[in-house]
Structure formats: structure tokens, C-alpha cells
Amino acid sequence: MTPEAIVELPDPFRFEDGTRVCTAAQWSRRRKEILDLIVEIEYGGLPPVPQETRWEELHTCQVRHMSGVRFISYRVVTGTDRPFSFLLNLLVPPGTGPFSVVLTGDACWKYVTDAVAGEVLRRGHILAQFNRVELAHDVYSSERASGLYLAYPDGCYGALSAWAWGYHRAVDALVKMDFVDVSRIAVVGHSRGGKTTLLAGATDERIALTCANDSGAGGAGCYRCQGPQSERLEGLIQTFPFWFGPRLREYVGREKDLPFDQHFLKALVAPRALLTTEAIGDVWANPTGTRQTHLAAKEVYRLLGAEGRIGLWFREGTHNHGESDWKAFLDFMDWQLCGREPACGFDMNPFPEMSPAFSWSAPGMSGGDSQTHP
User: Fold this and answer.
1) Residues that are catalytic
2) Which domain holds residue 275?
3) Which of 13, 156, 185, 226 has the fewest CB atoms within 10 Å around its CB?
């Protein structure tokens, strides 16, 4: 697999006034610029943070085929003047905790298999699941007449923002539970769910680890660097315009003019842990472009002294979120949040012939201070 013509990725260290980040201490100011830029243009902003978030326990029981495991169902309730609620289901391992948490909103696809749930619990993590389409529908419609749009009708945020908001509110609830280790909350999602977890992790620093699986365009993929048959911005906007904010469509056919690419989104997670899991045969999700955004975002991790906290993992096969993907994620989580060394590495490069799509580097590194953004 060879990528198409590569263009220079924008420099995340270049302030809007043209000056450049020189030290790690300056990154927080540049991070704020990137956060405002990408959230507004790509996602149409985020729904507002509610005045309060509380949770109501609906049901609890012991799981018959899992010794000592509890199932607890909650209703997460937000706001006072604009109430909204959704279900959050937990599988809690034996013991009193506090436990690390694996949180996914992909219950709209399916709840995870018994094998995956068992593996999460065996490693001592809580498995928390919600259905993100309770927050916003995943069907194109010009009507914003359901879910979160009714509670927060103002603004032009898309479904990805609404779904990421759901992750944030689930975290609101989790951090109030006395059996949860609030310092070890991980989020994981597949495909459009992976796009969502990247946004959720980029915009909520309480999330300790973010994992996106086969997330493609608008996720871990790259708008500028396209592989053969990978999804373009034009097709993405034509098919799923409601996922994004309205301003992103202005860049269809002129991706080189975007003031960011998806390595900026990944950089917002730094220095917290970030893993991208991919399938080499999932060409629609642009695995070569994902490798490019990984290398570019890794420069930010280098600046912050956190190179070991960003990972990239590939497998053979196509678009799926199977047990091998989950195992890789859990191995990375055990390493990053629990201190257990993994059996394999997490900086895979199945495209050794491909050169990085950028000439800049982290400040203080070779060539980094003199490079300019084209």
C-alpha cells in the first residue's frame, strides 16, 4: 500500500500570531488556541456544561455466570433548568475498589461480547457502557428535534459533539462513585464511535486514556494525506453532514487550507495516554494517513516528555472492533494506567517506505526551532 501525494501538515507549535512555541511551559497557551479552533470549525462547538449532573440507581444484581461481578444500571440526569437523561450500565468486578474504568458509548452498535466483558473484568476494570444515540440520532435529518437538541437547541454543534458530551456526563457520574478510581478512566470507541472518543478525550482532561479504533476521516485519519480508496472530506460531508459543524463543509476540495489536521486533535490529548488501533486492510479508514497523524502528534508528546504515552497498533483485516483490538487496548491500558508492561510494542509501522508528511519537529529537537509552516 502506498499513499498518494503527500503535502506538508500544519505545524501545531506555530501560534496564531506567527511566533512559535519554545518550551513545554508554553504549550498550554497554544493548546487553548488549537482547542478553540478545531472544536469550532470541525464540530460546531460543544453543548454547554450543565449546572449539575447526578445519577439514579435503577437496578443492581449479581451476574450469574460471572462470580462476584455486579451489574448496576444508572440513569444519568443532567441540568436543572434543562434536564436530560440517558442510561449508563456498569459491570463491576469483585471487591470494593476503587477500580479503573473502561467507558464506551458504542452500545448503539451492540453491547460488548461476553468474552470482551470477561477480559475487562478479569483485569480488574469496570466496564461502563451507554448508547450514544440516546444523545443524538445517527440518521440524517434536517430536523434537530430529538435527544440533546431539545434540551440545548441553541448552537450548531453536530452529533459528534453531542456524543462526546455524553462521555463527559458519564464521567461526571463516574467520578462521584466511591468504587471508581477517578485517575484511571479510559474511553474507547469504534469507527464513528472512535471519532467520538477522540473528541471526548481531547476536550476532557479527566479522561486518562483515549482509544480510537478504525476511526478514519474526522477521527485519527488525515484530511491532507490520503491513501488509495480512503474516505475524503467531500464524501464524509455528503453522507454524514450532521456529524460535524457547518463550517467544515467550507473546506471540501480545499483541505490544504484547513488551519489544522487531525494530528492537532490528537495533540490535545497530550500528555495523557492515547492509543489508535487500526486494520491494514481497512483502506477506507486511511491507515497510512493515520500513521502520519500519529507521527505528527508524537512531536507534541516529545515536547512534553511523554513519548511513551502515545501508541499506534495495527492488525491484518478490515473494519471491525474484535477481540484482538480490545486486547491491544487493554494491554495498553494496563501498561499506561496500571504499570503492567505489555508483551508487544505500540509504535507499529507497516509502511516503512513512507516518509513523514512534515518537516518541522518539536522545539528543542533537531531542526525544530527553525522550521516554518508553509
Assistant:
1) 191, 319
2) 1-43+215-319+344-374
3) 156
